[in-house]
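Can't paste images in this forum, so I'm doing it all in text. The chain is below; anyone willing to post the predicted structure tokens underneath?
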Amino acid sequence: MKSDPAKVIHLLSKFTGQDLTRTLGRIEAEVRGLSADDCDAFLEQAGAGREVLAAAAEMKRLAGQINVTIHALGILLCLPHILEQGETVEYVSLGAGNTGREFDLETNLRVAEFKFIRWRGGAESIRQNSIFKDYVLLAENPTPKRKYLYLVGTEHALKFLHGGRALSSVLSRNDKLQKMFSERFGSQFSKVRDYYDAHRDAVQIEDVSAWLLELAEVLIVDEVEDDLVESQSHRPS
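Text version of the structure:
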């Protein structure tokens, strides 16, 4: 079902009701004692038709597109705040996994990466790995242009960069980055803070929350960004 999103939402709402947990609890209670002869009538009464399943599948497809949409809109809405007098955009990489472009943004004055993640502050290894990858690739790029890492809130990212997590752990899921790091530095750095302390002036980390209040205030962005972080990890390094 590739249809009107409004119809998709309507079909799903008929099944889920106002409280999905309560709805499922009711159905679990009512399904006890169900026989094969009763199934069709019960499914119709519960609103659990194949059309609803198709609507749920379509919603899942649309949700995947939202990840990329947030990333694209976030970058575009940051541009009026970022660009300086005389600065012009050379390219933007708005989608996940775009090839042939090293960064999310390059102008005649800067290169930049954007991460629209709302950190929870706990064990967030996927986010940490992604942030470190972006920081390293910015810091090690030979361009003379200014380098920026734009984040929705910087507190947790900076705490991670100042922290003692082992680089062997951070790099373990990115073979290309691990190889590059090993060839360039050998055993010079063992913890995240060791590398960051030696390269803290290479990249400017800036908070975009004030420019994207609609995004910064929605905690659900925690979940929304997970798939995008994973897909971006496959971008060429």
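Residues 5-48 form one domain. The first strand starts at residue 89 and ends at 92.
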